[in-house]
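Here is a protein:
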Amino acid sequence: MEKVLITGGAGFIGSHFIKYLLKKTSAWEITNVDKLTYAGNLKTLSEIASDSRYQFVQADIIDFQKMRKLTSGASLIVNFAAESHVDRSIEDASPFVKTNVEGTRVLLEVARINKVKKFVQVSTDEVYGSIKTGQFTESSTVKPSSPYSASKAAADMLVLAYVKTYGLPAVITRCSNNYGSYQFPEKLIPFFTTRVLKDEPLPLYGNGHNIRDWIYVLDHCEAIHAVMDEGEVGEVYNIGAECEKTNLEIVQLILKHFNKPPSLIKFVKDRLGHDERYAISNKKMQTQIGWTPRYSFDDKFPETLDWYAKHLNWWN
């Protein structure tokens, strides 16, 4: 069996990815490293906790000696570990720089020392900033707007530098907004869903016209798996579903799904540096990797809303 080290695997996307991999193949042994911050929850992995191919280690990715030991013998590292909430980064950028930049540097260094076969850096479309028309491609200029996206962009630059300087076999994925079960309730869809279920006001930034591209979390997992297998060293791959919705549209769909009144919406002062629109092209993933999203928003969005309605104990 090949050893795969997954960092941040107790988070939303990382936990889905671990469960996806264990179902997909029996050839890998997975070690999940997570610091278990407020957004990490081992309950999301309870169904595979006893799987002999899986082990969990609570640790911080900035712990060089710990990461060096855990990386020894690993063929692959997939780095999901990150501070990721924009509002929190505006309040205090220091944890974002510490985890997203220094943590990535530590992982790159131990990957180099232990001669890991491939390093996958899971990044975000937010590093490109906002775009009025058209779509960002992998060759577009990186222009982050928030401390969060700046820290992710810095991490990406470190990855590319390690490829160039040391020949580290690394790739970068940049994905659009994810949705699905087990997402921490500070994120947009579960945030508004849980408030609607409690009949609480829905504070919506600005006029609600900010646009995001939404992708179902398992589409993202399949894309990362494809890049693990087929991605070329030093390349960046955009992972998007071309499913653009304004924040207001999302909130209106949630209200409609639960038959709640629009009067719950309360427009509030806009967030500092709020990007107007994210849009990325996934043509490179289609033509070079052979991946396309296969889950429909019309099917998976209401299914996601129903999951939160049925799992009040989890998010409460």
Notes: The radius of gyration is 19 Å. The chain has two domains: 2-178+216-240+278-296, 188-210+244-275+304-315.
